[in-house]
Amino acid sequence: MATANQNVLITGANGGIGLSLCKEFIARNYNVFGSVRPESRDDPSVTELRKTGATVIEFDVTDESTIAAAFAAWGDKPLDILINNAGAPTPPRLWHEVTAEALIDRFRVNAVGPFIVSKIFMPALDKSINPKIINMASNFGQIAKNEDGKYMAYKVSKTALNQVTKSLGMQMKMTDSKVIVVGIHPGWIPTRLTGMTGRDEMDVQIPKIIDTIRSIKDSDNGGFMDVEGKTMEF
């Protein structure tokens, strides 16, 4: 179980799920750090993030140099929970609308970004007593559950993220690392990324996500689960 004053870093923290996670973690007495892209610093959403009491840090998950600079500024603090939440949206919807650029963009943001952030911040995670990496996954990444083939670029990237979660978690086990890596499907919550559509309520899902994060154990390493901690197929 987590205790007060643990440090949490949430990427993509100035809207949707990220902002709501910041608010809930702060309400539970965590020290919250929320990342935003440098070009977004003057956006009203960043002002809203600051008002939560979170410490705002700047980096772009697709720009390794900005992540490295953010880590250099992090200092000697342990990082107890890293939540890779920043993501690219679901469109294009149909196959003939998908371009190479769309595939590459979704892959860089949704799969490569979480891995690079995790890799660069690993020394801070190693300083924690019970460090966790949470990748914000999606049921859209489940190959066996793909029934219509729509949103191909997004689905491909989320399937890749599942492999990142599995592979990194297994390597943490093999090296006797304390770090636990888990993918969590947050549900279908209305956000800007979903075009404000979805059947799940933010106020219901967010506390469940945090309760599940708090309950994650060593045997969950490399796993994929829903907000209630129930195992999902990759």
From TrEMBL:
CDD domains noted in UniProt: carb_red_sniffer_like_SDR_c
Pfam family, one: adh_short
Domain of life: Eukaryota
Entries under Gene3D superfamilies matching the protein: NAD(P)-binding Rossmann-like Domain (3.40.50.720)
Signal peptide range in chain numbering: none
Transmembrane segments: none
Molecular function per GO: oxidoreductase activity, acting on the CH-OH group of donors, NAD or NADP as acceptor
Record family assignment: Belongs to the short-chain dehydrogenases/reductases (SDR) family.
Protein name per the record: Uncharacterized protein
Originating species: Trichoderma simmonsii
